[in-house]
Amino acid sequence: MKPFRLGVVFTHPTQHHGPLWKRLSEQPNLSVKVLYLSDENQQAGDRFLGGNAQAWDVDLLSGYDYQYLKDLTGKVPDTRRKTVISPALVSQLTRQNFDAIFMQSFVNYSYRLTALLCKLRGIPLIMQNDATILSDGRYNRSRRVIMSFMYPWMMNLADYWLSCGDHNEIHLRHYGIPDEKIIRGCHPVDGERYRQTIAHRQADIQRVYRQHAWDEDTLLYGFVAKYIERKSPFEFIDAIAKAHQQNPRIRGIMLGGGELEAQINARIGQLNGEVINVGFVNQSELPLYYAAMHCFVCPSRIDPHPLVVSEAMASGCPPILSDRCGNWGYNDTVTHRYNGLVYRHGNSDTLADAMLAMADAETRQRYSQRSMEVFDGQDLNFAVQSFIQVANRIRQQRGLSPTVGQPKPSEAPVINAGTPTPSL
User: Fold this and answer.
1) Terminal alpha carbon distance of the chain
2) Identical topology for domains 4-188+379-402 and 191-376
3) What is the pTM of this model?
4) Selecting from 3.40.50.2000, 3.40.640.10, 1.10.3720.10, 3.40.50.2300, what CATH number does the domain 4-188+379-402 have?
5) Among positive and negative, which fits the CA dihedral 109, 110, 115, 119?
6) Which residues make Cβ contacts (< 8 Å) with residue 248, sequence separation at least 6?
């Protein structure tokens, strides 16, 4: 029996998806090959994180089959580009090579070529994005009118969509994706790596805390993001300053970098140490910072489904996020007053109130425990199961048995081999 052959067309190796491709490759009756359109973050840091950014320092390429594709110049691009075209897709994406193709969006020309090849050659196309109606609000009226005509046709080019949350499913249905094409999934976060790091580096966590706390009573509230306008870093700073006036234990730490760093440094320079700009922190150290925080804050104005929230939750750090983030809802990453708090974006007073509410130790502990429980239902295993589900649907449509994720008969565990099973 041949394995189900899943092809992945992806912009570049990421800290979130590399572990997913590895885990998928470990599943019975499933083979995975990832075709990367660039090697961004492997040779240099994310250009949007500023000059101090470095290449990711965790392994993103082991345990699965992958290939870097060359562009029209004959070279592998070192950054993502909308205009990139990878000619090798024409020879790679065939029914002889793959039973289905996964990609994330139509954002670049190679993705559009992938969709065209899949339609022409009868290869099922699986897609996932993190778009929401909330994030569509960034576009002007003319573009939204065009989207209302184009998106239903374009998005229905996919045979299946792996949704990543409540707001994302609303977005898919809004643009005409029928329920039978939607399978609930999630955007992957390697929570096991976070928890292993935290479990084995407790002394380093204490070092991080002591480095950034005034004293042992300090409450650290973290911001982890690119320093760009839509992430609302100044709303975080203003709210920390206001919360600190009422509870002097509260202090903010900012991790990241980007175009607003100079303005951020100027703003926090006007304060009295209530906020610290830590700057760029690489992947291997990031779990230590989440574990040292008492609360994680995501104040973005536009953020479809920020994975930093899931990273914090996997680390046991309870979240506060704005209502413009797309990962809150009754069946999503954050449920208001269950495992975190959601506040109305644009109001630093309301954010400060949420920060003050999180200063209560019992509240934090309750939200922390529930956040870890919620994350456990949205971890890599859940993401893997969504891929297995769609693969088996495709097999059934072809009149084949749904064996993806099931061990071969020769590999199945044998109970009481050679010994009769006693009657009950």
Assistant:
1) 36
2) yes
3) 0.92
4) 3.40.50.2000
5) positive
6) none
Nearest to 284 by CA among 54, 79, 52: 54
Q: How far is Cα 343 from Cα 252, in angstroms, rounded to an integer?
A: 18
Domain spans, the chain: 4-188+379-402, 191-376
Least Cα distance to 268 among 258, 259, 278 occurs for: 278
Q: Quick check: helix, strand or coil at residue 179?
A: helix
The pLDDT, as a whole number, for residue 136 is 85
276 backbone dihedrals φ, ψ, rounded to 5° = -120, 135
Report the chain (424 residues): mean pLDDT per 10 consecutive residues. Answer: 94 94 97 95 71 82 97 93 95 98 95 97 97 86 88 95 96 96 95 97 98 98 97 98 98 96 97 97 96 98 95 98 95 96 97 98 98 96 97 95 81 41 28
Q: How many degrees, rounded to 5, is the angle at CA 393 between CA 390 and CA 397?
A: 145
DSSP state of 180: G
User: What pLDDT, on a 0 to 100 scale, did the predictor assign at position 409?
Assistant: 62
Rounded-to-integer distance, Cα 174 and Cα 133, Å: 8
Which contacts (CB < 8 Å, 24+ apart) does range 168-175 have?
168/129, 168/130, 168/131, 168/132, 168/304, 168/305, 168/326, 170/132, 170/133, 171/131, 171/132, 171/133, 171/136, 174/133, 175/147, 175/151
Strands 160-163, 182-184: pairing kind: parallel
Q: How many CA atoms lie within 13 A of 325 on its CB side?
A: 28
Report whether CATH 3.40.50.2000 matches the domain 191-376. yes
Q: Which amino acid is at 354?
A: A
Count how many residues are written for the chain: 424
Q: CA torsion angle for 91, 94, 100, 103 (degrees, to 10)?
A: 30
